[in-house]
């Protein structure tokens, strides 16, 4: 796989990320798309959402369409991954192993992980959307 550092503009394939995570958790890809609260499916789906948001540069709307989840579920999934990563040693090890399997370059893993663990990521996007709406109203 070509690194985005070598060829800028190339993003990671969401299909590749989902296949790797499903294989690591010994699930079928279609299992990650099922609407269920079963932990053995929810955990890999949440990790997929968190990784795809940053590695594939997908926004919450894209992810909610991809996984057939509400926008609030997408935000919740990302927050769960962030909190579990910070507080649960076993979960951190799982995520690090998944990241290592998907992304061969250490710099790339570190960059994506830093974005995943940024608590203000969604707040910044919401703030931008509100600002742009206010500006458009004032101009009219």
Could you please describe the fold and organization of this structure?
The chain has 140 residues and is mainly α. It has one domain: DnaA protein, C-terminal DNA-binding domain (Chromosomal Replication Initiator Protein Dnaa, Chain: A), CATH 1.10.1750.10. The protein contains seven helices and no strands. Helix 1 packs antiparallel against helix 2. It is globular, with a radius of gyration of 16 Å. The N and C termini lie far apart (48 Å). The C terminus is likely disordered.
Instruction: Write the element-wise H/E pattern from the N-terminal end onward.
Output: HHHHHHH
- Percent helix among the residues? 55-70%
How would you describe the shape?
globular
- Unreliable residue runs: 127-140
Number of DSSP strands? 0
- What is the beta-strand fraction? under 5%
Mean pLDDT over the residues: 84
Quaternary state of this entry equals: single chain
Number of helices: 7
Topology:
Elements: H1 14-24, H2 39-55, H3 60-67, H4 71-87, H5 89-102, H6 106-116, H7 121-139
Which key phrases capture this entry?
140 residues, Chromosomal Replication Initiator Protein Dnaa, Chain: A, 69% helix, single chain, mainly alpha
Entry summary:
This protein has 140 residues and is mainly alpha-helical. The chain has helices at residues 14-24, 39-55, 60-67, 71-87, 89-102, 106-116, 121-139. The N and C termini lie far apart (48 Å).
């Amino acid at each position: 796989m070509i690194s985005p550092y070598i060829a800028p503009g190339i993003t990671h394939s969401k299909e590749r990320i989902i296949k790797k995570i499903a294989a690591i958790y010994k699930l079928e890809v279609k299992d990650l798309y099922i609407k269920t609260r079963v932990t053995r499916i929810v955990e890999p789906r949440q990790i997929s959402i968190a990784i795809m948001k940053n590695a594939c540069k997908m926004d919450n709307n894209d992810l909610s369409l991809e996984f057939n989840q509400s926008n609030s579920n997408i935000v919740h999934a990302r927050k769960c991954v962030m909190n579990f990563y910070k507080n649960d040693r076993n979960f951190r090890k799982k995520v690090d192993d998944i990241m290592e399997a998907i992304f061969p370059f250490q710099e790339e893993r570190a960059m994506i992980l830093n974005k995943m663990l940024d608590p203000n990521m969604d707040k910044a996007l919401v703030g931008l959307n509100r600002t742009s709406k206010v500006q458009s109203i004032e101009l009219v």
